[in-house]
Amino acid sequence: MATAVLSNDHFYTNTDEKSLEIFSLIWLDASVNVKDTRDTEVKLRSIINHIKKFQDIKLCQHYIEQTSQKDRLVIIVSGRLGLEIVPYIHQLRQVISIYVYCMDKKNNEQWALKFAKVKSVVVDLDELVSQITTDHKIQKKIEEPLSINIFTTNIDAGKSTTGVNEQFVCSQILVDCLLRLKSNEIDKNELMNCCQNEYVGNYTELNNIREFEKDYSPDKVLWWYTKETFFYKTLNAALRTQNIHMIFLFRAFIYDIYYQLQKSQSKHPLQVYRSQLMSSDELDSLKNNIGLFISVNSFFSTSDERRTALFLLGDITTPIDSERVLFEIDADPEIVTTKPFANISKYSDFPDESEVLFMIGSIFRLTNVYRNDDQIWIIRMTLCNDDEHDLQQVLMYMKQQIENEETNLRTLGNVLWEMGKFDLAEKYFNRLLQKLPSNDPLVSSLYEDLVELASQRGDYDMSMKWRQKLLTFKKENPLATNVSTNKTNNSIGQSILVDHININAEWKQHGITVAGGNVQGNQLNQLDLPCGIYVDDDHQTIYVADYANDRIVEWKYGAKNGQVVAGGNGKGNRSNQLYHPTDVIVDKKNDSIIICDRGNRRVVRWSRQNGKNGKTIISDIDCRGLAMDNNGDLYVSDTKKNEVRRWKQGERKGTIVAGGNGQGNHLNQLNWPTYIFVDGDHSVYVSDYRNHRVMKWMKGAKEGIVAAGGNGRGNALTQLCHPQGVTVNHWGNIYVADSFNNRIMRWSQGSCEGSIVVGKYEKAEQSSQLNRPSGLSFDVEGNLYIVDCYNNRVKKLDMGEIPPKSYHYLTKYLPAGIKDLSAETEDLSDGSENLSDESVHLPLETEYLPDKTDYLPVETKYRSVRTNPKDFIEFEESHCNNGSIPTESLTNLIRLFEIDDEMYN
Question: Whereabouts are the TPR repeats (predicted)?
């Protein structure tokens, strides 16, 4: 061996340092020549990044012994030091292979033969690198620890299953929580910084990181996952070792994998295989729990080729206290509800491997464990879903604990608290505190959590400090509502109470188009008179009721095209068709969407798991808007009966919760109710369309309260004109799409007038203007989503700028020559839709025409005009040029007559 000695400064002395990868390489040699080994280290780091060098045998042994059994260590030792240390470390589970690098191969082979984990004795560094490279190709596939939890019902005398089952359930809830928890650039940047720090000096991986930051997109996630780079290594290590914070930082990419698996979900039953080296203790645990459930805490990679899996087992020497294992798994896509699986070969960096990947948290029933004639243990499993009898009750209860509230860092903290990870729970509570405005209502709940958490840990001084902060906050913010007692079910329905939208919130006026906006049409990048919207923060998705295209379209955040998830098979009443849908919500408890199929007078449920057909859950109803409360009860508005009903699961008739006293404008009546919102107290807010007001009906009330508008039709700040989408925040502020005024209004609780959030009185296509806004929603960050119906787009407005002041109101006109219109038309203001084929149901607005002689004022009424629709031309002041009518305006008008009445009422 060379005699030059490396300075101790270059050797590892900190035994507390942790790697982001599972595999580490330990090099013990008393006399390592820097020049000889520098190039070798570069080559080795391209295989195993984490390399630690030792000169001191005791320090090296201590480091190895304090590592986790879930770590995987490859050891390089010199001949003399190897003879001393190998007898003490070779039996450790985490030590998977040992290589002896020496000058005297023959003598060192004699003692090395006694230890099965010694793979080779070499005298050449290139040979050493080659041997480690070859062995690691197999080791990385079968040596990675398999992190599993067992759900057991076996109760031995004196033993409890509570701890075991709680770990199983909490791991499931943690996955669900992280999938719902929206990511942000701060967290992604933190992840990239962690990776860059991990791979300092590893130029191959640093280049991979730069490429990832530059070129990554969600549709490439499976390619990155299967590619031998930092992404796969660090993500897998985080999952298998349950490094919660790294999993938290990876959550956006975990969701991308989940979404791709869901899109590519296998359509037919499969039998797949996985080879594994497993400790005797792990194998015994499985043998003792046949018939029970196991969940896998990582992505579970398998092959649909048995021969491929067996090949990996046939070329290894079984280490001490380990067994060769082959998993045989039956997977039926029909029973999949929440955890998809798919053959990812066409997306993989290794397309010939025929890899079938299962989602994190997949649950299997263990059906048999036996040893075959080749001395390989066969583990037979069947893929299960959350509805298996033994699991359903406990999983459903736990999931409801997080589904009954908006998913945020507080939710994650509470899950970790339940898991006994107090430090992490405190970390995420504080992380959220730093992000919130100082007067946010959620601050109160977080202080309460921190008080109780510190007390539970026995840190009573800290508990008292948090309690003092809580009292100070309540004194300074007496109007702030405690979030823990005033929540709606974001994960079940669309009633989102956005925590941090306070009284003074403002939005930028120039929004961005996040769906449609490519003129009217039926392509996947187009919409045609969109109506209702649901924002699913958990999956970073919006759902749009694409009215005139008879479909529901799903748009991922940032996507250029949507994806049809319901309907889209032409107008009709078959189970795979829709007819003019007007609203949509997501029922996350049942992983489905619920659709207001207005043209078919029914409400339908459509599975989000590749559902091809809908199921009618309410029929014979003139439905218009939908909502769901935190109990999972469904609310539907009925424009014919002028009422809103609540349906509990299993009910056939429902219960009237608003209106139901005929058409009218009294406090116990409604006139054409459209969109609805249900708050945490089960008060129902209704857009009372033809009464130009928003009504609030408290739970059990016999009449409503005017919460916005109610001062007749108009454009003053005290008025609304055909309100549609409505939502309410924690402060009781009402946000309403003031449709015919082409603006979004905010009405503070108890206020006599509203303020303009966005929009002008004229309708236009510019990004700052609206044209008949309908659906309305917020995301978890308080960004505003508006369905800009006549512009065939969905706009997103970020919070930021001061709301606009009033703008001049431009009017709509009818051409001169239509005189004494009221005498020539039939009044249908009762809302009747029974029109003859030759008649047109046309909504007309109150008009005021200053300094115009060619046009006449038009009285406000809803009429069926028995004449040729081409005679009625709708256009703005800008179109009036010596009585000429632009061809485009004429074409658009004619098309308007082909659309259902309620779209324009």
Answer: 406-439
